[in-house]
């Protein structure tokens, strides 16, 4: 979720700050940003609120990444 990293840094937030707001670890936020894992669905509204965006914005560009993986 590279969009997540871009949104987080644009707001001047650290991974720790986002994690605290959501009740998860900094490592969880790191894994979301690297695409190793995804945030749990119930966390998406709060995550979007913290980052000042829509839920759709969190996944911006991800469809392109999935398409590339599927054709590889």
Proper CATH architecture? Orthogonal Bundle
Which fold name fills CATH's third level, the topology?
434 Repressor (Amino-terminal Domain)
What are the segments in which pLDDT stays under 50 over at least 5 consecutive residues? 64-72
Under CATH at level 1, the class stands as Mainly Alpha
Helix content: 55-70%
Structurally, the number of domains stands at 1
The number of helices is 6
The CATH homologous superfamily: lambda repressor-like DNA-binding domains
Q: What can be said about the biggest beta sheet?
A: none
Q: Roughly what is the average pLDDT, rounded to an integer?
A: 86
Can you offer a commentary on this structure?
The protein is mainly α and 72 residues long. The protein has one domain: Orthogonal Bundle (434 Repressor (Amino-terminal Domain)), CATH 1.10.260.40. It is 67% helix and 0% strand. The chain has helices spanning 2-10, 15-22, 26-34, 44-51, 55-58, 62-71. α2 crosses α3 (26-34). The protein starts with a helix and ends with a helix. Mean pLDDT is 86; it is low at 64-72.
């Amino acid at each position: 979720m590279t969009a997540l990293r871009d949104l987080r840094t644009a707001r001047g937030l650290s991974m720790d700050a986002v994690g605290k707001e959501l009740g998860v670890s900094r490592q969880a936020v790191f894994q979301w940003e690297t695409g190793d894992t995804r945030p749990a669905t119930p966390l998406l509204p709060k995550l979007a609120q913290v980052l000042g965006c829509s839920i759709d914005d969190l996944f911006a560009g991800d469809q392109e990444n999935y398409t590339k993986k599927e054709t590889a």
